[in-house]
Design brief:
The protein is mainly α and 274 residues long. The protein is 82% helix and 0% strand. Helix 11 packs antiparallel against helix 12. The longest helix has 35 residues. The relative contact order is 0.11.
Length: 274
């Protein structure tokens, strides 16, 4: 029944619109319909099976709780958002510097690249208690958690982007007497910006998760703290409302990255990407 409903929507769009509507069909309408149907199934299952609130709340109850708790969630979200912003900015600066050094010195790249890859096999939540021991219970361990979660995708994406630059472009500027730093400022860094923003989009999604994980372990404010407090009280509607707030924050961070991509890559504005 679900797939028949979706297929009927596609057929209606196909016969009532042109090419532009077909693009919306693929990118917006179809995922929206799937999400809407899943929510309806979730709502119906909770009511038909008479699931207790402390086990699984209905989506309608989650939305109601989100609206009721919005002022409190907003205050906690500001803390989480600040930790996220600071962490992703530090991660971006360090990642850009390391990627440039890796690209400039191939021997260094060969030495450090495997270490970066292996480091991703260690879950950050295992290291978080060590951060608390050495950095205390303030914002520092949360920001460091965000940095470590965002650092890898930005570094690897930017380094690979610079490594794929056409050598003919590099030789051209060198033929005009360009120094090594001019090669990077004129050719390599601008040419790898698309790869940089690709890594930033991934990091933006991880960043909020990193802040929340840090707040789980030691905090008295933030969405992670709010979620733990609600979980310990078996207030599952508040837990799901907090998850909804975290989703909105992740979407907001992705929107910020896309905005900067729009500003720094004007040649990409006329290309259909989304």
């Amino acid at each position: 029944m679900v797939f028949v409903f979706i297929w009927n929507i596609i057929e209606i769009i196909k016969y009532t619109g042109g090419d532009k509507i077909k693009d919306y069909q693929k990118e917006i309408i179809l995922p929206t319909c799937v999400i809407f149907i899943l929510i309806l199934l979730w709502e119906g299952f909770v009511h038909l099976a008479n699931i207790p609130l402390y086990v699984l709340p209905a989506p309608s109850r989650v939305i109601m709780t989100f609206l009721q708790e919005f002022p409190i969630l907003y205050d906690h979200a500001l803390i989480t958002l600040w930790e996220t912003f600071v962490g992703i900015i530090i991660a971006t600066v360090l990642a850009i510097l390391l990627a440039i050094v890796m690209d400039a010195f191939n021997l260094f790249r060969m030495a450090i690249y495997p270490i970066l890859v292996v480091s991703q096999t260690v879950p950050i939540i295992i290291l978080a208690p060590l951060f608390i021991i050495y950095l205390g219970f303030g914002m520092a361990p949360k920001i460091l958690t965000v940095v470590l979660m965002c650092f890898f995708p930005i570094t690897i994406s930017f380094a690979d982007g610079m490594a794929q630059i056409d050598n003919n472009q590099i030789n051209l500027v060198r033929s005009f007497g360009a120094k090594w730093y001019q090669v990077y400022s004129i050719v390599k860094i601008p040419g790898a910006m698309i790869s940089l923003f690709s890594g930033l989009r991934v990091a933006a999604t991880y960043s909020v998760t990193g802040a929340v994980v840090g707040e789980w372990l030691s905090s008295n404010k933030g969405l992670g703290y709010y979620m733990l407090r609600a979980k310990n009280g078996f207030m599952m509607d508040k837990v799901f409302a907090c998850i909804l707030a975290i989703v909105f924050l992740s979407l907001f961070m992705n929107g910020i990255v896309k905005l900067f991509e729009y500003l720094f890559l004007p040649h990409m504005r006329n290309q259909k990407k989304y």
